[in-house]
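Researcher: We're reviewing a set of sequences before deciding which ones to prioritize for further study. For each one, I'd like a predicted 3D structure that I can look through quickly. This is Cytochrome c oxidase assembly factor PET112 homolog. If possible, include the structure in token form so it fits the rest of the review sheet.
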Amino acid sequence: MAAPVLRSGCPGRCWVLAWVYGGSRHRRGSPAGSTSNWIRGQSSLAQQPLHTARKPRKGEHEWAAVVGLEIHAQISSNSKLFSGSQVCFAAPPNSLVSFFDASLPGTLPVLNRRCVEAAVMTGLALDCHINKKSLFDRKHYFYADLPAGYQITQQRLPIAVNGSLTYSLCVGKKRSQVTTRTVRVKQIQLEQDSGKSLHDDLRSQTLVDLNRAGVGLLELVLEPDMCCGEEAATAVRELQVILQALGTSQANMAEGQLRVDANISVHHPGEPLGVRTEVKNLNSFRFLAKAIDYEIQRQIKELENGGEILNETRSFDYKLGCTVPMRDKEGKQDYRFMPEPNLPPLLLYDATSLPAGADSQQVINIDQIRERLPELPSVTRERLVQQYGMLQEHSFTLLNEVGLLEFFQNVIKETRAEPKKVTSWVLNTFLGYLKQQNLAVRESPVTASALAELLDLLDSKVISSSAAKQVMDVKKGNPRAINKLIGLVRKATLSRADPAVIKAILEKKLSSC
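Model: Here's the predicted structure for Cytochrome c oxidase assembly factor PET112 homolog, in token form for your review sheet.
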């Protein structure tokens, strides 16, 4: 068999790799109480059963909930997993489809190097064991937006296994205490995304857009070490921040780059685990938490009323705030997994196994990727707390808002103000301003330099705190005038104008905004 070609993420560049194979998308066939997926360990606080908030009435047994997650993250790459087609959100329908994406006869997959490196980097960040040999498989099922009739995935031997994800929860009556918990990562695997079906109810037809078909995905399977919606949402939020820090995925849920399936069951403590249901395609943290908590209470109510829980797939109706049935899973679907015949085993190397004289551009070196790992969010938070003396919850806010940490650090570099004052202004005044205007950090008309100047003027008592906040008050008028106002104050200050004159100029401009 000829050696496969491993592409870079950029069109027009090719890489040769030593050997390939692997893949799986959903573990639909695993039984509700399988030992490998659903037995909870007792080694950490995260794995100890937590019970539902509802206290049992007299004569009743308390309930424990078990939650596991399957997460699909779109890999940040210029091209798709097995073709050179561009990846671009909101492109015109069917404008980014290659012959391979459309599954035309005679087309062959060419593995994207960037996607493999992203999977390895994510696995290392989550303390996974990286398999030096992984395999690709075909998973057969029929969807109108799956042209080939199968998905290339890693069912038998994924690229990374046995990791962990640590996240922090705020607990206590005032939620002022922070506790750390851990969920096990069963595996990380590479796989293709499907196309998108657009349902036109007016014309009673479904249109298919294949732009997304073949886009590279990371599927991360989290073991059922969680017990409620808040835990699950917090764990996924932490994963999102890690992926964004690594640059392996933008993980924008609004654009479908991070999608979550939740597996949920309830049981009495000490008894066998219950039948689980799967809630599909949850695309926001709020909906994820609501869907899980609703499903837990639904199952408890059903069992207490003498009913039974069906092993079924459900979806979350955000308008009604409840889960609704999609299809039952009692009749096990045969996906007819088979080895992908057009992709040999994927071989990775480290410093000890790298062949002598091997071209670094033709192989993937695990140790080189490990050396390129950036500072992880947990380390960044500790550094912020120690370096600037900020509260731990403030460090979480800085990292959770995309671009806010960079903005904060740029303000710190350019101002003489104390870090605590900068923290307060960035997290309260500046972030509140963005929320009111419904803007992302990158869209803010207030630059880091402008805010630094404003804080310098405040620090030197050229302007008062109320005047400084008035400059940031978007209710006063056009928010894009803020930078001009700060510049005006700066010029007046440099000209050594009387402070009363500066104040009068500022108030006049503010009143005219």
